[in-house]
């Protein structure tokens, strides 16, 4: 099985089909259905969904009581079943069906020349423009659990059917029909609780002004509540317009997210392809324990569900890339308006958290170290806005820049300008004398003039800065505001204890490095803290990321480049998101990273100049993933187990031991690293 095949990574390709149809012409409708099935098969879809009563048309009214029409529908179904013999695809088509002298509005599941099951509609609307009880019988009144159909004996019949792919046990689908979704407790709710990961809705929802938005919201919300994929196919062109109109609205959602939708009011057939992430469904269900509790609470209602096997060969051989898009920056929306809204809310959360903490401590001042880099700049912005909210002067921000042995002229200048522009009470403390004294005390070679720049040399500087800040906090009765971000915490890129790891309150601890850059840019662009501050912020954004602990040859440039050691933050943040948020295995994380990052020309970018748009081959992704796995799972948890308080900012997760992530400090990464062998090198 190819690494580059979506089925290899527990995706299921589904098709939402909106065919052109003709009222009361089942032969024509069958031909249109088969044509779309063939198209879906050619695109390697595993399942294809069609509209409600699509073989007859929904708007037949009392024609449904004509034997000639019902017989023609059976002939049409037979044609669809015969065509399916040449396909691996599973199709779900709508039709009226007689059972024991009663007429049901049904969805028939067809695969491999057989009807696997038939699901009758449970809730029949009989209000406003709908009169379905005039023609049909509610599905939950059916006595039979199986029927004979087209020469097949014992075809499963009922609303409590689950269809499970034998080759992909995670792929289990449930079928409901139109109005079923509009009820307080849709049948699909029980289907999901019974184990369905994909919910299918055959619909003939007519269109009125504004109904599309409500329909979209309804589908999204049901997929969110049920933690499932949800496919919706509504009737379109060809239905009778005697008293109603039809827009052919097809939708594909997953866990509350709209993946794709059809164009409305098209005068031709449409095929919508969506790749459903079954791992995402299962990950969220496993973590959200209220889902399991709901299943236990409704055990009696779930008892009657039956599972029908779907024995088909999924297209797992050869390369089959994803049809859906994955943003390169999962923490940073590509859309400008959405991104601005995200930035505004992140600041609100950070500022709210800090204000509450200051009020609880009965403190009206803060102590913060300012390096001229990204993280301390972001924390300083939060402090400034907190003072504004509390009605306090920004001079209550006691800001200190503390140059060491490797501080560049650029960052020192930026720190000075930034503190002044913000209006903080600024002071500069040269930590080199105290660092040198400590190096002498411990007998470090650097104290004897030897250029030994080891981890001790680095951490003496980081520790000295934090030690100064804590004593200044004591002196001024003000808390130390931490600056470390989520990306650094994930990779263990901090000095433990008396170092940048520690503070009285962290404001950036659940904000990733990639997002921090856009937060700062947002403040600069909006001139939120004044034009001079904006000019400094833009300079900060153009500064190469470095801890500045090892002297460089050029006084104006850093001697260390963080990303050359721990990897590009833009890629590591991607790996972090899918590891932390969903618990994906490394092979899947690598596949998604390759999909998002292997070609800079594809997909959307969040306001990044073309010259700065990077791409990563699978070998590069594998290399940096190895670094991530070792540092995240094996080397850094002891630091995270002792993190200071900090507000959780995004659903992408927090690494606080009191929030999203609890893990042993002495775990090993062997299980994750073993998977690297399954990832290609090129």
Detail the topology: elements first, then pairings.
Elements: E1 11-18, H1 26-42, E2 47-49, H2 67-84, E3 90-99, E4 102-111, E5 114-120, E6 146-149, E7 152-157, E8 161-165, E9 168-177, H3 187-193, E10 198-203, H4 211-225, E11 229-234, E12 250-254, E13 257-261, E14 270-277, H5 278-287, H6 289-297, H7 299-302, E15 306-310, H8 336-361, E16 366-369, H9 374-390, E17 397-401, H10 409-422, E18 425-428, H11 432-442, H12 455-476, E19 481-482, H13 486-491, E20 505-506, H14 513-526, H15 531-541, H16 562-566, H17 569-580, H18 586-597, H19 618-635, H20 637-640, H21 670-673
Parallel strand pairs: 1-2, 2-3, 5-7, 8-15, 9-10, 10-11, 16-17, 17-18, 19-20
Antiparallel strand pairs: 1-14, 3-4, 4-5, 6-7, 8-9, 11-12, 12-13
Quick overview of this protein structure:
By secondary structure, the chain is α/β, with parallel strands linked by helices. Helix content is about 40%, strand content about 15%. The strands form 4 sheets. Strands 6-7-5-4-3-2-1-14 form an 8-stranded mixed beta sheet. Strands 13-12-11-10-9-8-15 form a 7-stranded mixed beta sheet.
């Amino acid at each position: 099985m190819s690494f580059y095949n979506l089925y290899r990574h527990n995706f299921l390709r589904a098709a939402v089909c909106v065919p052109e149809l003709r009222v009361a012409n089942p032969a024509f409708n069958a031909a249109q259905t088969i044509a779309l099935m063939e198209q879906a098969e050619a695109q390697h879809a595993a399942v294809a969904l069609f509209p409600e009563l699509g073989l007859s048309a929904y708007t037949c009214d009392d024609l449904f009581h004509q034997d000639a029409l019902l017989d023609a529908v059976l002939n049409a179904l037979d044609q669809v079943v015969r065509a399916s013999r040449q396909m691996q695809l599973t199709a779900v088509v709508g039709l009226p069906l007689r059972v024991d002298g009663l007429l049901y509005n049904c969805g028939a599941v067809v695969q491999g020349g057989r009807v696997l099951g038939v699901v009758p509609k449970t809730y029949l609307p009989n209000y406003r423009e709908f009169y379905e009880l005039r023609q049909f019988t509610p599905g939950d009144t059916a006595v039979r659990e199986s029927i004979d159909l087209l020469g097949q004996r014992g075809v499963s019949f009922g609303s409590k059917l689950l269809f499970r792919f034998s080759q992909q046990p995670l792929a289990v689908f449930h079928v409901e029909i139109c109005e079923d979704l509009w009820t307080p407790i849709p049948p699909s709710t029980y289907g999901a609780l019974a184990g369905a990961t994909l919910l299918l809705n055959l619909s003939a929802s007519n269109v009125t002004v504004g109904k599309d938005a409500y329909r979209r919201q309804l589908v999204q919300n049901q997929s969110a509540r049920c933690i499932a994929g949800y496919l919706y196919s509504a009737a379109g062109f060809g239905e009778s317009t005697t008293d109603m109109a039809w827009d052919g609205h097809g939708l594909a959602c997953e866990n509350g997210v709209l993946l794709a939708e059809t164009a409305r009011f098209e005068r031709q057939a449409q095929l919508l392809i969506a790749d459903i992430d079954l791992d995402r469904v299962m990950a969220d269900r496993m973590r959200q324990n209220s889902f399991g509790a709901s299943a236990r609470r409704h055990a009696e209602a779930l008892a009657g569900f039956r599972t029908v096997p779907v024995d088909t060969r999924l297209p797992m051989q050869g390369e089959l890339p994803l049809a859906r898009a994955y943003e390169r920056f999962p923490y940073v929306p590509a859309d400008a308006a959405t991104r601005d809204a995200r930035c505004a809310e992140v600041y609100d959360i950070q500022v709210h958290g800090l204000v509450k903490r200051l009020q609880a401590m009965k403190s009206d001042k803060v102590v913060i170290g300012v390096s001229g880099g990204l993280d301390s700049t972001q924390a300083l912005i939060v402090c400034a806005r907190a003072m504004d909210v509390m009605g306090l002067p920004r001079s209550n921000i006691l800001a200190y820049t503390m140059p060491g042995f490797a501080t560049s002229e650029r960052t020192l200048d930026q720190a000075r300008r930034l503190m002044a522009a913000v209006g903080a009470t600024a002071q500069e403390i040269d930590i080199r004398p105290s660092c040198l004294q400590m190096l002498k005390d411990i007998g470090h070679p650097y104290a004897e003039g030897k250029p030994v720049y080891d981890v001790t040399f680095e951490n003496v500087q980081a520790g000295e800065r934090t030690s100064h800040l804590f004593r200044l906090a004591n002196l001024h009765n003000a808390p130390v505001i931490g600056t470390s971000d989520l990306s650094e915490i994930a990779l263990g890129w901090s000095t433990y204890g008396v170092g940048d790891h520690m503070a009285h309150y962290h404001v950036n601890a659940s904000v990733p490095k990639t997002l921090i850059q856009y937060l700062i840019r947002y403040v600069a662009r909006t001139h939120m803290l004044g034009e001079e501050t904006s000019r400094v912020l833009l300079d900060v954004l153009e500064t190469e990321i470095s801890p500045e602990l090892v002297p460089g040859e050029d006084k104006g440039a850093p001697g260390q480049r963080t990303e050359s050691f721990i990897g590009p933050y833009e890629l590591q943040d991607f790996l972090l998101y899918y590891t932390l948020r969903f618990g994906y295995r490394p092979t899947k994380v690598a596949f998604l990273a390759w999909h998002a990052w292997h070609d800079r020309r594809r997909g959307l970018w969040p306001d990044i100049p073309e010259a700065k748009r990077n791409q990563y081959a699978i070998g590069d992704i594998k290399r940096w993933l190895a670094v991530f796995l070792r540092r995240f799972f094996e080397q850094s948890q002891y630091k995270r187990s002792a993190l200071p308080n900090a507000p959780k900012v995004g659903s992408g997760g927090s690494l606080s031991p009191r929030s999203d992530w609890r893990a042993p400090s002495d775990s090993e990464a062997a299980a994750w690293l073993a998977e690297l062998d399954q990832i290609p090198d090129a």
